């Protein structure tokens, strides 16, 4: 079964995946494919968390893995992205995990013989990140609906924001967006950070995605944390039970004060741990 985006996922589909991930996390569910399955991780764009938590998830399920390195591959002899993926299909692994900077790249692979899991496409989708965010939200609130979520920062360039805005709203949450003008997207409504920080259950910070900025944003990064980031003053305004999440990697001192990364309200490293168990659940479903 492919996992390309979350557009067709219902609340029940998502709750089932969360429950499966939490069963893997608690040890209640154990699966061992005895090295009979092979997962190919094809990351055409840099990654630490998604790439290596898929590696770990596959190994925890007793699978073998192949980790593609674009550097030194035949991409350097002008082989295309499409032909590279078709090669990996041809050698018959049991799942392909692919990340590419091309939006909706998966649309060119309609009839692959191998389950395809999207590890992130351009600015469009990052389904496993949203799912692990939902695991973390569920662990903290025992629900994935009826919450107030404030998404903060570089919304315009973020596939995490785009996937999460859609799925969180469809699940019946109130989603608010805040960020400086250059990172605002046409057609979306933005609120004042200082006004909304005290009202929300989840503060979802985003990384400043410098690699996707086509021109200088004109922002002063020396004062960014004070003006637009999660600093200690804003942290003090958060509700007692509110949590901070961030897909990472994070820019310490820019979108978040470095002391807040491991503060009591921050679930950032727990999110990363949940990424392992969520990806075990995703691979388990892909093999069905
Ligand atoms: N959150 C996330 O996708 O991180 P990586 O880019 O390190 O995979």
What characteristics describe this protein?
288 residues, alpha/beta, Rossmann fold, 2 domains, four-stranded parallel sheet, binds phosphoric acid mono(formamide)ester
Short summary:
With 288 residues, the protein is α/β, with parallel strands linked by helices. It contains nine helices and eight strands.
Report on this model:
The structure is a single chain. The protein has two domains: 125 residues, Rossmann fold (3-Layer(aba) Sandwich), CATH 3.40.50.1370; 143 residues, Rossmann fold, CATH 3.40.50. The mean pLDDT is 97. Helix content is 34%, strand content 14%. Helix 1 packs across helix 9. By secondary structure, the protein is an alpha/beta fold. It starts with 10 loop residues before the first helix and ends with a helix. Strand 5, helix 5 and strand 6 form a beta-alpha-beta unit. The protein binds phosphoric acid mono(formamide)ester. The site of phosphoric acid mono(formamide)ester has 10 residues, from helix 2.
Report low-confidence residues grouped into runs of 5 or more. Answer: none
How many helices? The count is 9
Order of helices and strands: HEHEHEEHEHEHEHHEH
- At CATH level 2, the architecture of the largest domain is 3-Layer(aba) Sandwich
The amount of beta strand, in percent, is 5-15%
| Overall number of domains | 2
First and last CA, distance: 7 Å
| Main β-sheet description | 4 strands, parallel
Ligands bound, unique: phosphoric acid mono(formamide)ester
Number of strands: 8
Please, what is the oligomeric state? single chain
* Secondary structural class: alpha/beta
């Amino acid at each position: 079964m492919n996992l390309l985006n979350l557009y067709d996922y219902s609340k029940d589909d998502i709750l089932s995946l969360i429950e499966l991930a939490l069963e893997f996390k608690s040890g209640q569910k154990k699966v061992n494919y005895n090295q009979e399955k092979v997962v190919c991780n094809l990351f055409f764009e840099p990654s630490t968390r998604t790439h290596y938590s898929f590696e770990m998830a596959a190994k925890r399920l007793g699978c073998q893995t192949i980790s593609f390195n674009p550097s030194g591959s035949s991409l350097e002899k002008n082989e295309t992205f499409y032909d590279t993926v078709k090669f990996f299909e041809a050698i018959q692994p049991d799942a392909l995990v692919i990340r590419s900077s091309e939006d909706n790249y998966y649309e060119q692979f309609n009839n692959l013989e191998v389950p395809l899991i999207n590890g992130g496409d351009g600015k469009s989708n990052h389904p496993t990140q949203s799912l692990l965010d939902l695991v973390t939200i569920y662990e903290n609130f025992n629900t994935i609906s009826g919450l107030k979520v404030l998404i903060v920062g570089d919304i315009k360039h973020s596939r995490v924001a785009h996937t999460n805005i859609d799925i969180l709203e469809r699940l019946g949450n109130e989603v608010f967006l805040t960020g400086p003008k250059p990172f605002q997207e046409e057609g979306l409504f933005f609120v004042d950070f200082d006004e909304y920080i005290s009202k929300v259950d989840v503060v979802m910070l985003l990384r400043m995605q410098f690699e996707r900025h086509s021109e200088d944003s004109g922002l002063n990064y020396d004062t960014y944390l004070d003006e637009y980031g999660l600093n200690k003053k804003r942290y003090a305004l958060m509700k007692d039970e509110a949590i901070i999440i961030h897909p990472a990697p994070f820019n310490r001192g820019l979108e978040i004060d470095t002391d807040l990364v491991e503060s009591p309200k921050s679930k950032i490293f727990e999110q990363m741990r949940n990424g392992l168990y969520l990806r075990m659940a995703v691979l388990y479903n892909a093999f069905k």
